[in-house]
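Example 335, ligand adenosine-5'-diphosphate.
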Amino acid sequence: MTAPALDARSRLRRITGLTPSGHLHVGNLLGAMAPIAAGQYDHDTVVFLADLHAMTVRHDPARVRANTLEQATLLLAAGVDPEVTLLYPQSQVPAHTELHYLLECVTGVGEAQRMIQYREKSARQRQVRLSLLTYPVLMAADILLHRIREVPVGDDQDQHVELARDLAIRFNQRYGDTFPVPVAVHPSAAARVMDLADPTSKMSKSAGSGAGTLFLLDPPDVLRRKVLRAVTDSGTTVAYDPVHRPGVANLLEILAACAGRSPADLATEFDSYGRLKAAVVDAVLARVTPIQARYAELSRDPAHVHGLLRAGAERARAATADTVRAARAAIGLLD
Ligand code: ADP
Ligand code: TRP
């Protein structure tokens, strides 16, 4: 398989970065992995393991390495096809960091310090890594490197895509037209699965004890128990009301995303929380069990998965070389 021509179908090219900072969960599956796998034959698709992003906060080297392989294996198990999708670890394509540096040269310190996620994360730590401040610039490099125009992200990433946009415009104005200007796009509802134990926060790899997180590699009985213990409210009838009844709404959204239906419609079909939860257990297990089976098969041969990633990285290096060359020349570096 040869690398896609640089500008062919670039309007439709999509990119997703998964950070190997923990274990993947049903939020990642429904919000990112399943839509990627479903769209990969219609769009040029780039999926990279953002291992460099995993180092912007304290990290354990062995765990980052293990998580990277685990996440890649889960992506393959969930149907990402490495023949058509560029799947690779970010660090194996040095163009990401090369472009990162060039983009730092068009970024203001104040601009980086204004990022909400940086302010929130840095306020919670005593020793803040410089890479946490510059991470949105690396994310801009991820996007511009692949000449992406539409970036599907959760709304928490809007400001970062906005920065990528500003940097592309500024670079083009100062040094000549080099990058397409990207824009954030938001996937459909259910794009934000909430924590089952705290339905006001997002289901996340790093949330507390994990009691409210449905990890893709949790054994079926653990998944069942987590759903059955999900926080609801003191009501008894099932209605879809995300503002006043976030726990029930979240269960309905998970079910809706699994069934390809609308949460409000589904609400009319249940007369108790118990029955709703039982249906969510069935739907989640029906989605996750086949992925676990393929994961078990694939992980018998980690060298094969590793080889696929290396091949993906090689294609990504080839596919991005022209863009880096153009950026280097524009900004004043000798070729
Ligand atoms: P996390 O927030 O768990 O650390 P990442 O930042 O690595 O996940 O995000 C990987 C992808 O999964 C992104 O496309 C993100 O939008 C999606 N994603 C993460 N959490 C959720 C969630 N709770 N619901 C829906 N999609 C999610
Ligand atoms: N920062 C993104 C997140 O936390 C992950 C990411 C890194 C990303 N680089 C990207 C997403 C480039 C889209 C495009 O979810």
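Summary: Residues 21 and 180 are 30 Å apart (CA to CA).
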